Amino acid sequence: MSRREVLKGLRFPGATRVNRGLWLDRFLESSHRDDTESKRNLVQEAAQEGEPEGYAEFFQRYRQALLEAGAEVREAHTLGRLVVGLGGEGVLETSLTLHRTYGVPYLPGSALKGLASRYAHLRLEGEAWRRDLDRFQRGEAQAALFGTTEEQGLVVFFDALPLPGKWRLRPDIMNPHHADYYGGGKVPPADWDSPVPVPFLSVTGTFLLGLAPAPGVDREAAKPWLQAAWQILAWALREEGVGAKTSSGYGRMELAGALPAQAEEGKDGGKVPSPEYERLATRLRSVSYPNFRRFLEENAEAILGLSEEELAGLRQALEAKGFLRNQGDLKSWAKESPHLKQVLERLRG
């Protein structure tokens, strides 16, 4: 009897008694490439509810170890589905990053660090945040926070584990219709091409994130960099998402609780800007005039909810970019959309 024949007699023993990673690697009934049914069954088995025995105790030890190492910890919950490690090696065409011992999904610290570095490069102002990976060059702020090939960064990004009882694997599916065309075929894609279902696993839930000053770095000296790292990570998780398929909306997360810099007043006694204002100001930096109307439409509610001080700041940023000069466009937009008219009136003050 072949090995695959033996596997057909085995049944999934339950999520509390088996390592999901091991089950996914070893217990696919058929190795035939086109056997979608076996792949779908394997994914559905791994997605069953249940948590490995001993994981809750391990999680508490991990959390305690982070705190004893001087790390700041915060929770982040998914806003939709999330998949990290989709292109990793596995018996399926798809994969998911799972903890080797407990088989639970987790977010590698390297993925979170890379996401924050990329977001800072693309969205933050100033040459200090730019990076050129082809030439191994980073601006001063990039090098200080994330490190270089010669020197470590000031902040350590730890792996993010799911909170016990607050996560779940989900059976998911991709359904490409033009596999031959995207595989290099010469025949153009057409409406009558057959779909090719590709099952995979995604995740929902709450994860524990941890950041700490790098070993040897004074905690007080690292404090502003830790705050910057949390802020960048919060923006990046909410606006871009972590992992794969972010262009389809996967990977978006909300960092819970107020950021340290947002929980208190500024040093000059003024109010610290709201997260919504910070988000708008950051997004505005990458907006060009052809996309200005869309920016207003997509963020109308957020703009209307800003304080007078924040509106003045946003108005100043728009004027600096020259977005309020073309009165003809502004009048036309206000005439076409009463909601947009309300937003423009607020911005004009």
Structural write-up:
This protein has 349 residues and is of the alpha+beta class. Helices cover 40% and strands 13% of the residues. The protein is built from 14 helices and 7 strands. The strands form 2 sheets. Strands 1, 4, 5, 6 and 7 form a 5-stranded antiparallel beta sheet that branches. A hairpin with a 4-residue loop joins strand 2 and strand 3. Helix 9 packs parallel to helix 12 and helix 13 crosses helix 14. The longest helix is centred in the middle third of the chain and has 21 residues.
Which key phrases capture this entry?
two-stranded antiparallel sheet, alpha+beta, globular, 7 strands, 40% helix
Distinct helical segment count? 14
Give the overall form.
globular
Instruction: Report low-confidence residues grouped into runs of 5 or more.
Output: 258-270
- Quickly give the structural class: alpha+beta
Largest sheet: 5 strands, antiparallel
Query: What is the succession of H and E elements?
Result: HHHHEHEEHEEHEHEHHHHHH
Number of strands: 7
- The separation of the N and C termini measures 80 Å
Percent strand: 5-15%
| Portion of residues within helices | 40-55%
The overall pLDDT average reads 86
Report the radius of gyration as a whole number of Å. 24 Å
